[in-house]
Amino acid sequence: MAWLALRSVRSSRPFLRVLTQRRFASNDQFQTIKPFSEIPGPKGLPILGSLLDVARTIKKAGDDNYFHQQLLKYGPIVKITTPGKPFVVIGTPEAAAKMFRAEGKYPSRGEIEDKMTWILEKNNIPNNLGFTKGEEWKRIRSSASKQIVPRRVANYTPGLCEIGDVFVEYIRRKRRPDGYLEDVYSALMKWAFQGIGYMTFGEKMDTFDESRKDLLEFQDATIKFMNSIVDVTYGAPLYKLFPTKGYRDFVNGSNYILEYGMYL
Q1: In a 10 Å sphere around its CB, with 0-12 CB exposed, 13-18 middle and 19+ buried, how is residue 69 labelled?
Q2: Who wins on pLDDT, 260 or 116?
Q3: How many CB atoms sit inside 10 A of residue 104's CB?
Q4: Distances (CA, A) of 259 to 126, 169, 200, 244
Q5: Does pTM surpass 0.70?
């Protein structure tokens, strides 16, 4: 996979995924730029679009299966129509790279910045790189870029290797005699959380150690925080009327991450 984020891949979560397990088409198939209206994809029904097919497939086989099928059928860039706004699924690293390079000086992710900023300001929580935009995003991004140059990132390699070794040892302990690991999702979340935590805070947070209740709570709050971003962004804005679950998880996760960072 191109990236591994701390977010769930269960049932009805994502609306945008970069899938790179295999090549769905050759590079020359997306050399010519076409208007948005000509992006291939399932036609769907009037008003509902492909919503029923998406929900049906996700319920049976998971979201990756549905998007995987569409990429195999239509090529590396697919447009999916649902009530509200259509969304696009990118299926190769090359196509994703072209998309990111075309974003311009101030990239935008649609409504996510406005929605998350509204919640953060309402709860007096400082905004961050993930939800700012325009000149403010550029300022923070430029400052952050200085910390992730190859020379500095290389300094984290030994620690990340140790985290990987602990991950492998954990799998060896937990797998069945036939080699099958029953809860691979939780294992991957622990590994990803530790790697990202080490890069962010410079601390090794061993959530494979079940006695570290504080770290396990932090990990759980972070995963719920990542999931809540999708829930709030693509769900109805009911959070403006009352604190929905996504709203509560986002606020709780934001506070948890901020407080933990200040503690360190």
Answers
A1: middle
A2: 116
A3: 7
A4: 11, 31, 14, 22
A5: no
